[in-house]
């Protein structure tokens, strides 16, 4: 988080002890407008949610209510996709009798046989990643037998940065094979927005959610949501939590009158995506922080951020490949997974003996041990599904990458000498 954003948070927390100073100063509207710039859409189509899992659950609820998923339909997602964009679809398929299909991760080529590709920071449709190829194959295959009701994907896989997934092209493929109602396209952009541009409306995305605490420099506790006009303007759609703040006429501190004739309160929603705002008043502590963070991202511009970070991840990939380690052949400009070599996995299997359940578990053991060793040397990366998730940002330098590679080489030497 930026120091300037941290300072805004301190100031906002202090105001809570003088609540009479808390006013609706238009910060929420500013956040909607700034986020709309990032996704190339209208502020009228931006909603506020406490988390991406909440936003995806809200999308699934309205897709179910609309009758767009029926028994026998298919909902497509990716293996090892972030659970925030999986649990809601598991439940939806169980309720509707639809079939949830996970597309397996494309197998990486052997590191010694390739060189890392130049990473893209745009949405070029001329180059397809392994995920693009796997997705298009799966879409065409399943469309021959069933209707694809929902495609729910990230822009990059959160574990190893593999991708990008060409969202624009995917919409064209979905429309080409559509049988009946158009496939609903849901995107979790948490791992890309702020570094890689997205054009939500022109790319035909129906619902898009992005937690602000990742690449948007924000605090925890907020996910910003794009809702396509088809859904936000549909009078049949609704929030999953019912309260006053997203009702027409209840802006700011205005309280709606209780109607004895109804009895109760007016049920008319705010226009556009505001009706999908989570319950409760807009958080006066988070909003100034998020606004400050989004302003900085837009000032630096995602394209420039991505281009800066692409050099660091390329350096990381090249160093890892020289060691014989595995990295995705196509990955995000801002993060990537570094996995064990075949020899590392064999060693883990040998040491664990009959207790090991397979090579994937051995890779996880290696990544867990590597992350712990690196942490002892004040280098912090996450172990995710058998790889080290290396995610530099603009505060990192090439020296940081070189130190990571040096300590990782030391870990492998110690591991092989046991």
Describe the structure.
The protein is of the alpha/beta class and 418 residues long. It has two domains: 3-300, Type I PLP-dependent aspartate aminotransferase-like (Major domain) (Aspartate Aminotransferase, domain 2), CATH 3.40.640; 302-416, Aspartate Aminotransferase, domain 1. 39% of the residues lie in helices and 11% in strands. The chain is built from twelve helices and ten strands. The protein has helices at residues 3-15, 27-39, 52-65, 87-96, 130-143, 167-177, 229-232, 286-300, 302-322, 342-352, 359-376, 398-416; strands spanning 46-49, 74-78, 99-103, 148-154, 184-188, 207-211, 223-227, 336-338, 382-384, 387-390. It has a seven-stranded mixed beta sheet with strand order 1-7-6-5-4-2-3, sandwiched between helices. A three-stranded antiparallel beta sheet has the order 8-10-9, with helices on one face. The model is unreliable at 110-116 and 121-125 (pLDDT under 50).
